[in-house]
Batch of 3 targets.
Target 1
Amino acid sequence: MIHPTAIVDPAARIADGVEVGAYAIVGGGVSLAEGCEVAPHAQLLGKVEAGPGCSFGHAAIVGADPQDLSFEPATDSGVRLGANNTLREHVTVHRSATQGGWTSIGDGNFLMVGTHIGHDSQVGDGNVIANNCLIAGHVEIGDRAFLGGGSVFHQFVRVGDLCMTQGNSALSQDVPPYCIAQRLNRLVGLNSVGLRRAGFDTGLRTELRRVFRQAFLSGRGLSSALADLLGENWRPETGKLLAALSSPSRKGVCFPKSRS
């Protein structure tokens, strides 16, 4: 189901049931699994691999060259998407800046209007990224996060599972798993509602609150607090939070206001 005005390279691999709308462009390196939809004026460029059920909104551009001044256009790289991702109008996803590299988006993500995913970023599963979020290069986003509209993320930062960010936040440090961040690198607590909806039981939520308070609100240095916490037995989900605090990215970790 390809509109007669669409430009589709004969080398593109298009499964049965794919729809390509009016004036869309699909390059020769593109692979679209069954059930994908390419809306009018969308462009899939270079090497783009999309799993089943992905939707590319009006004027979305996926696979364009990265915004890296040292990038060599002959670099063999691409964008890889899992299944059932929705990219709404004007979403942009840039290909990797590394030879053989991929900008990666997992399964079941919802990228709202105007979202940008920079080169070499890795996005997990089930995330909701609201309008006009800007994700720089080499950012890692876990699973089931909700990023508020207009939030911006500096290159190389990590955003953990089930995080939430307030709209218009500016984050140049890691957001640990299960936390809420706002403004400039400020944590405001755990995403308690999100954890409950995700099936985290009362005991686990209590355990996570204890770790958060001891790590950030005890008045001790983070390293000292972590030394005590790491000596105890924790459930795997809590272990993930401790691991993120113990081994952050090169950017360090966001803190509550009292420690920022």
Target 2
Amino acid sequence: MSSGPTPGTGIRVLLVDDDAAIRAGWRTVLDAAAGITVVAEAAHGQEAIERAAGIDVVLMDIRMPVLDGLEATRVLTRTRPAVRTIVVTTFESDAAVWSAMRAGAAGFVLKRSPAAELLEAIRIAHASDSLLFPAALGRIAAQHSRPPAIAHAAGLTPREDEVLRRLARGRSNAEIAGDLGVGAETVKTHVGNLLDKLGARDRTHAVVLAYELGYVFPGAGA
């Protein structure tokens, strides 16, 4: 097991799971992929926190001894905000997945996900330009988000509201720009403004808050 980052190129990934066989499977997939380098592994959340320096993306199991993935995600969100954490789960509807999104995870993947989906998740999380599996996030929100208490409390403008709804559909800045007939830089400005108004860390957190505040309703589409 690596104890910390080593020189490498591409997206620098930390693998976190208490099952060494699962980590080995992930490593096999990632080592064969262009532009992705596994630089460290960890068997629980505390090790993940200690080995996250210089990491771009963390692939994080949720249920582990010593410190679970949910708490490790909270700590990394607070101490290393540039690190993007993808939580790994057995069941998509798991309430822990929604908690992880609220704690700062960039998204999630299923343990049974095919290699192509795992690689796509890592690249999307690193790019930070769209959501991981927005339809699945909506289904989880339908089961685990709280009923909206104060809809539209953040005072978004109509255009910011339009942008947020498209974020919830997983649209990238370029795609939103095409939808609205504006420039990508204009969309980037709108995204920054709505993040500030919502008090959101990133796009994923903004969409989680959108469900909870009533801008977007689970099951009704974005």
Target 3
Amino acid sequence: MRYYPESLEKLISELQKLPSVGSKTAQRIALHILRMSEEDAKILGRTISEIKDRIVYCSTCGSIADKDPCRICSDPRRNQKLICVVEETDDVLALEKTGMFKGVYHVLMGALSPLYGVGPEDLRIPQLFQRLNNRDVEEIILATNPNSSGQATAIYLQNKIKPMGIKITQLAYGLPMGGDIDYVDEVTLSKALEGRREI
């Protein structure tokens, strides 16, 4: 038996495809949208529709941007010799909120996971080595998540970068094991960045 009109049920169904959105949350969001003014609902719809056209991935670092290269990579005040390697674009946003990091980023778009068939060629690892070969990089900060996949990725990168003579550091572990960087508060993340250690 259908409880809602078909269009509302379709919206609830689509909202459930979002991460961490179950049926109850999707229902609440859908009903909230229904209660919004027509103009606000249309703005929301247009914004969602336009995001795929307006957002690009930076060809240098791989992060999301509204232009290529992104604002960070094209900022002359950023230290291009210091690259922070992260798993996802969420991690860039989290680190930028600290206001501490003045270098540039490289987004891998995931972590190594042999169990799920994710190897180096499935990530933006070749692009990282291309950057390292084409630039005078002095330090790489490995800011992968402190879980098994993140650690495996950090060890793999360390083994490949070390022979290149580039200084390699890793975030200090004030970060919780098994957690994700984008969920860590700014103070903890700042301290982890400050206390990074060479590996």
